[in-house]
């Protein structure tokens, strides 16, 4: 877990096995087991989308791609497997190099670098207007609300004229129709806890709704969105994923317990014990009733 703080949050306990270079930036769990969760999440997205990684209409045979927030390179490594008609040059950046795998076996094909995407200066000059595709997925918890426009403009400078960008973010809760606290009391508490965490730590819980606008403002054209539904628990798309999806999801939110301030979250939780109880109840409720957030794949083209 990246250590973060606000005036009202008080002291937050450190979590062991920290990845270096992410302190104060990334609010979800950020220890060694997080790589396992990210791979599970990647597998769920692949299953839910029918093995879709890219929705941009890439036509050329050779593609130089940059994954921003690459973690251990799982997304990059699946590109040649799922899109063998292209010859891929695989590049990735992440704010912390501790996530990078050893440079051996399939991973030897990856060019992974420690880099902060909030920086306007590329790691090397050849990266300027150097990529056919720039990809970024699920950084709601990693970027401040005020940083999104800057980051997308930085990406614009890395895309070749005529090249594409793809942003992928989840509509984890419907902005205008959140959960009914009577029928879904624990999912409602989960929503209100997420809202509190994102508001108090400067994140944008509903950034998935703004992706098209951000891309247009940065200068991209041909903006297109494709939406997929992820099924958790009772709404999983196969029996295999019913419990597996809920286990993964609860593992994610257990990390938010480290962000609880003294006195808890008004109207939601009073202390860590109530948080732990919520995790148990949320697991049971999702298995029984299900949870079906949407994943937005938004692509856009840089003008020639």
TrEMBL record:
Keyword terms of this UniProt record: Methyltransferase, Transferase
Gene3D superfamilies for this protein: Vaccinia Virus protein VP39 (3.40.50.150)
GO biological process: methylation
GO molecular function: methyltransferase activity
InterPro entries registered for this protein in UniProt: SAM-dependent_MTases_sf (IPR029063)
Protein name: S-adenosyl-L-methionine-dependent methyltransferase
Lineage summary: Eukaryota, Fungi, Dikarya, Ascomycota, Pezizomycotina
């Amino acid at each position: 877990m990246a250590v973060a703080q606000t005036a009202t949050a008080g002291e937050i306990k450190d979590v062991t096995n920290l990845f270096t270079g992410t302190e104060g930036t990334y609010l979800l769990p950020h220890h060694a087991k997080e790589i396992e969760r990210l791979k599970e999440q990647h597998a769920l997205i692949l299953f839910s989308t029918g093995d879709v990684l890219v929705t941009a209409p890439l036509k050329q045979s050779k593609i130089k791609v940059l994954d921003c927030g690459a973690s251990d390179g799982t997304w990059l490594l699946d590109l040649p497997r799922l899109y063998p008609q292209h010859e891929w040059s695989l590049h990735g950046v992440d704010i912390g190099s501790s996530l990078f795998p050893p440079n051996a076996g399939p991973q030897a094909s990856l060019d992974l670098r420690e880099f902060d995407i909030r920086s306007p200066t590329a790691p090397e000059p050849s990266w300027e207007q150097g990529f056919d595709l720039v990809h970024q997925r699920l950084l709601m918890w990693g970027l401040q609300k005020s940083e999104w426009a800057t980051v997308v403009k930085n990406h614009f400078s890395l895309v070749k004229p005529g090249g594409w960008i793809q942003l992928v973010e989840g509509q984890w809760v419907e902005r205008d129709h959140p959960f009914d606290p009577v029928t879904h009391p624990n999912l409602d508490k989960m929503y209100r806890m997420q809202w509190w965490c994102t508001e108090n730590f400067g994140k944008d819980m509903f950034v998935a709704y703004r992706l098209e606008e951000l891309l247009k403002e940065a200068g991209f054209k041909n903006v297109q969105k494709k939406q997929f539904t992820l099924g958790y628990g009772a709404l999983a798309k196969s029996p295999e994923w019913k419990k597996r999806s809920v286990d993964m999801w609860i593992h994610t939110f257990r990390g938010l317990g480290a962000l609880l301030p003294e006195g808890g979250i008004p109207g939601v939780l009073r202390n860590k014990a109530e948080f732990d109880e919520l995790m148990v109840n949320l697991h049971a409720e999702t298995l029984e009733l299900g949870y079906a957030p949407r994943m937005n794949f938004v692509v856009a083209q840089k003008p020639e």
